[in-house]
Specification:
Blueprint (H helix, E strand, L loop, with lengths): L5 H8 L2 E6 L2 E6 L4 H7 L23 E4 L6 E2 L10 E3 L3 H16 L11 H8 L22 E3 L9 H9 L5 E4 L6 E4 L15 H5 L5 E3 L10 E6 L8 E7 L2 E7 L12 H5 L9
Parallel strand pairs: 1-5
Antiparallel strand pairs: 1-2, 3-4, 3-5, 6-9, 7-8, 10-11, 11-12
Helix pairs in contact: 3-4
Bound molecules: iron/sulfur cluster (SF4) (2 copies) and FE2/S2 (inorganic) cluster.
Length: about 280
């Protein structure tokens, strides 16, 4: 489908702005964020709470950049360019901040991996963050009450990507961030077990989670698939694209493809329910 959204159309209408990114002249639009422009220009900035397609909330602070003349660093996922701005993503100050945030988050990660693609680990490796110097937080119990989704909040960094995916993409609004300080945590409905909540198992939150805190049940995401097979969701007629991950001729799990025919999340809740259902025998 070639149609563009209203937001994308508004972006095209916004005037171009010239500014400096790591000493290089670049062009961006006032409707874009620094992190988006940097990505287009081939400049990587660590990010965790930012996810393309979800509203930016700027809560993890891993994407901080230095802007000449400004007293404090700015989160590049929430900041638009202005003409003549001088942005540095790799100055000593910006890098020190990015690494410290990653080290703090890393110190709270459990020893057990729940996914082969933990974004905190990946960014920490890229930035050369070693063993954290900080004590780990008190760990919370797992919630395995849901037949399709494992909740491992010991790996949760409270980025709220799952919350925004559930509320804004799927319009289900099951997930919340409750309590304060070191008691803050992701909850389902009124802090119910996920299996007893109003969750419809669409899987959008699992796909959004960067750390494995929400993962397909029975550790299906840890198995290395032999192959991936492109297909379409069998549920409704929209034809959302899926990728099946297959091992030993059995489907481990399947994931929605981002550039699917629907403009946002799946048109049908049950369609994405497939994305996290683990099937041990095809
Ligand atoms: S699976 Fe879907 S409905 Fe359930 S919590 Fe996640 S996003 Fe919300
Ligand atoms: S469960 Fe995952 S997506 Fe949700 S806040 Fe925690 S780390 Fe982020
Ligand atoms: S990615 Fe920018 S604050 Fe989290």
């Amino acid at each position: 489908m070639n149609a563009i959204t209203k937001n994308e159309a508004a972006q095209l209408d916004a005037p171009l702005i010239n500014f400096l990114l790591n000493g290089r002249d670049v062009l961006g639009r006032a409707t874009e964020t620094l992190i988006e422009i940097a990505k287009r220009e081939g400049v990587e900035i660590p990010h965790l709470c930012y996810m393309k397609g979800l509203d930016a909330v700027g809560n993890c602070r891993s994407c901080m950049v230095e802007i000449a003349g400004e007293r404090v660093l700015a989160p590049s996922c929430c900041r638009a360019p202005t003409a003549g701005m001088k942005v540095s993503t790799d100055s000593e100050r910006a890098l020190r901040s990015q690494k410290l945030v990653l080290e703090l988050l890393l110190s709270d990660m459990p020893e057990t991996a729940y996914t082969r693609h933990n974004e905190v680990d990946a960014w920490a490796r890229k930035l050369g963050v070693g063993k954290p110097r900080f004590e780990a937080r008190e760990q919370v119990a797992h919630d395995l009450s849901h037949p399709a989704i494992a909740v491992n909040l010991d790996a949760c960094i409270q980025c709220t990507r799952c919350l925004r995916a559930c509320r804004d993409e799927q319009v289900n609004d099951v997930i919340g961030l409750a309590f304060r300080g070191d008691q803050a945590k992701i909850v389902f409905d009124m802090d119910d077990a996920m299996g007893a909540s109003t969750c419809v198992a669409c899987g959008e939150c699992v796909q959004a989670c960067p750390t494995g805190a929400l993962m397909p049940a029975r550790e299906a995401a840890l198995a290395v698939p032999d192959k991936q097979v492109a297909s379409v969701c069998p549920y409704c007629g929209v034809g959302c694209q899926l990728t099946y991950k297959v091992k030993d001729d059995k489907i481990l799990l399947w994931k929605a493809v981002t550039a699917r025919p629907t403009t946002g999340g799946c048109a049908s809740r049950a369609a994405t329910a497939s994305t996290t259902r683990t099937i041990r025998s095809a």
